Structures are given as structure tokens and as C-alpha cells.
Amino acid sequence: MENYDDDVPTLSAETLLALQQFYDERNEQIEKFNLDVKNATTEIKFEENWQLSQFWYDETTIRELSQACINACPPGGSIALISCPSLYQATEKIRGDRTVKLFEFDTRFAVFGEDFVKYDYNSPKEISQKHIGAFDVVVCDPPFLSQECLSKTSTTVKLLSKGKIVLCTGAVMNEEAEKCLKVKKCIFEPHHEHNLGNEFWCYANFDFDSCFEGSQQKS
Fold first, then answer.
1. Could you read off the pLDDT of 48-70 as tens digits, one per residue?
2. Where is this protein chiefly located (predicted)?
């Protein structure tokens, strides 16, 4: 019986080294490309869609609120943003080793890849099992000032949350907010790029004001 092993070509050490360098360089290029794409998407400017009741926070609110959310979340922890897409990009930039997920109805934000989770408050329990009880901090801004919208969003919040809850909504929802999520008004008050006719408050079920830099929020 003939032995064909001697006919199998072998690569020299130099060729193997060159091949390994080629694969290493290719992997570096792929990683750089993925990073460039991610950086590009985090700089995208999205316009408000008023038909979806979208009203973006102003720059100061985005900066202060995103930093406070990071401060409230332990290293290696996770943050869920529900129906507050204007908060995502700033939070993602400073998240470090934390995970940030955006639960949002508007599919324009699907450009954020795995960080985007399609969400409809009308189906509050349609949440992937992997997200149940997975988030150290849950921040929500229900799109409509109604008992129904807050109640349904609250159902989702409770499914996602490990404990800390932050709610941004109108002052008129004060009683419903306490009833649905057992949250209290914070000293910090969010503001929007375009002034809303309704007074807007921030609520939490923990001392969220202490999470702002220097705890500068004063009564």
C-alpha cells in the first residue's frame, strides 16, 4: 500500500509566519472598521418625530442625566433606557465596562446594533428572557402622559429591573408614578430642547440626586 503523506506539501516557517501576520493584520482592520462604524453611529443626529411623541432633552440634561445614570450603576453593571433615545448616545460614550441597552419603538435607532431592542409599550411583557431582571438601573420616559402608557411601561420596568428605577415624566403624573413604581420626585428636573407646555419632573426609587456630579442638585 502506497503512503501518500510524503506528497502532502508543507509550508516553511517563514511562510507560516507571513500567513499569521496576514491574518493578524486582517483582524486588526476588521476591528478598526467595526470601531469606526460604532463611532460614526454614536455621532448621528436624529430629528424628533412628534407623531411618536418624541421630545429630546437639551444638552445640559443629557450630559448631567447620562453621567448620573453611570454613577448609579456599578462597574460591569447594566443600564436599560426605555423610550428615551436622546439619552443613549451620551450614556454609551461614557459607559466604560457597563452595558447600555435602548428599548425603543423607533427603528431608526436600530443603527446602534445589539444595543437596540425593539420595544412597544402596548406589549409590555414581550421582553426577551435574557433581559428579565438583568439591569441595575432602568431609566424610562413614557412617550405619552397617560395612565395607560405609564402603567404599561411600568410593567416592563419591573420586568427588567434589579432594583434602581428612574422615571422622567410630567408633573401631572406624580400620583400615578408613585402608585405604579413607588418612586418619589427628585430635586433634579430634566429640560427639553423645545419647551413643553407641561412641567416635567424626574422621579426615582432611590437617592438619585446624590448620583449627580458633586451632588450639586440643591433644594
1. 555 666 678 899 999 999 999 99
2. cytoplasm
Domain ranges of the chain: 11-42, 50-211
Kindly report which listed range (111-120, 135-144, 197-206) carries the lowest average pLDDT score: 197-206
Count Cα atoms within 13 angstroms, Cβ side, for 28. Answer: 6
| In contact, 153 and 177? CB cutoff 8 Å | no
Instruction: State how far the Cα of 209 lies from the Cα of 200, in Å rounded to an integer.
Output: 16
CA atoms of 207 and 68, how far apart (whole Å): 11
Domain 50-211 CATH assignment equals 3.40.50.150? yes
Q: What residues have CB less than 8 Å from 108, skipping those under 6 apart? A: 46
Cα separation of the two ends of the chain: 93
Question: By three-state DSSP, how is residue 164 classified?
Answer: strand
Mean pLDDT value across the chain: 85
Closest to 110 in 3D by CA, of 118, 101, 100: 118
User: Distance between CA atoms of 82 and 102, rounded to whole angstroms?
Assistant: 6
Q: Fill in the DSSP letter of residue 151.
A: H
Q: What is the C-alpha separation between 161 and 81, in angstroms, rounded?
A: 11
Cell digits for 201? 419632573
Q: Which of 54, 49, 44 is nearest to 141 (CA)?
A: 54
The residue-averaged pLDDT of 86-110 equals 95
How far, in Å, CA of 203 to CA of 182, rounded?
A: 9
Residue 18 one-letter amino acid: A
- Sequence-distant (6+) residues with CB within 8 A of 171 are 198, 199, 200, 201
